[in-house]
Amino acid sequence: MLDATTGQNALAQAKEFNEVTDITGIVLTKMDGTAKGGIAVAIQSELGIPVKYIGVGETIDDLQKFDSEEFVNALVLQRGRKTMMTLEKFEEASELVKKVTNPTKLIYSEYLSAQTGAKVYLKPENMQRTGAYKVRGAYYKISTLTDEERSRGLITASAGNHAQGVAFAAREFGCKATIVMPTVTPLIKVNRTKSFGADVVLHGDVYDDAYAYACKLAEENGYTFVHPFNDLDVATGQGSIAMEIVQELPTVDYILVPIGGGGLITGVSTLAKMLNPKIKVIGVEPAGAASMTAALKAGEVVELDSANTIADGTAVKGSRRSESAVCSGKCR
């Protein structure tokens, strides 16, 4: 029996116990949030043992079996219905995004392979027409919207890559798009976003400032918000990357994924595990903007005081609840 409120410590304790004795199951107490549920997912995923739980204020008579798939799929509610990441939707997204993406075949890196003693391949998503993978999630998300939602106009906040993705995808669907970007966004990203026909508003020093202002504009003008990462449809579109990796390299052992808000690693890790549960997904984020690391350590979403990194696309102060929960169970 372990205390779920201790976050990653509960997972570490479970591993320690499993090393010295044969554990047939674990009971987590004080379960009351998505991040704590993520710990249960992590224990089941890494140790392969069943988990039962007791909620806050409950007794042993209230003991319930923990269903990891049901938990992950119930994290996000959109437009009054559950939105789930399913293999069917990943397959749909993978076919759909081919309309707007360039093929990015894996590139074998002799240098990184020599440095690591492994066979290292790179997925050159910087070769997309919008300069990054973000167009995948944006295009798939917009494809799921109703005509009425598109007609209201779209809005998002972005440090640059999602901005270009939404602007390009909106143009393909014939939608108006407004993009709020931090004032420190590189000028080349601002100009490229404008080149796709979007209206650009510069506000705040980091993504979180731009996001708050974008939400304000959406409420005032009735725009449809296309979130850069806290949206399972967007994450499903980003997950098409994992489909391509596994199709091209079926023997892949590890996939390293950068983390900003967490949408990319949510989609990639979920689909990778669906296709091959043995694949290990490792998240990588800047030391000066390690919001996911802080969230997993605390067992709940954490808002950093600042996000300092030259990688503007990952300068996010805090991941969101669904991404933190999914990553705690499927990533390292």
Molecular structure report:
- The chain is globular, with a radius of gyration of 20 Å.
- Helix content is 45%, strand content 14%.
- Strand 3 (51-55) and strand 4 (64-65) form a beta hairpin.
- The protein is α/β, with parallel strands linked by helices and 332 residues long.
- The protein contains 15 helices and 14 strands.
- The two termini are 24 Å apart.
- It has a 4-stranded mixed β-sheet with strand order 1-2-3-4, with helices on one face. Strands 11-10-9-12 form a 4-stranded parallel β-sheet, with helices on both faces. It has a two-stranded antiparallel ribbon with strand order 5-6.
- Residues 74-82 and 321-329 have low confidence and may be disordered.
Keywords:
single chain, 332 residues, alpha/beta, 4-stranded mixed beta sheet, 4-stranded parallel beta sheet, 15 helices, 14 strands
Q: TL;DR of this structure?
A:
With 332 residues, this protein is α/β, with parallel strands linked by helices.
Structural class: alpha/beta
Main sheet characteristics: 4 strands, mixed
Give the end-to-end Cα distance, rounded to a whole number of Å: 24 Å
What fraction strand? Answer: 5-15%
Spatially, the strands of the biggest sheet line up as 1-2-3-4
Shape: globular
According to DSSP, the number of beta strands is 14
Uncertain stretches of 5 or more adjacent residues:
74-82, 321-329
Q: Helical amount among residues, as a percent range?
A: 40-55%
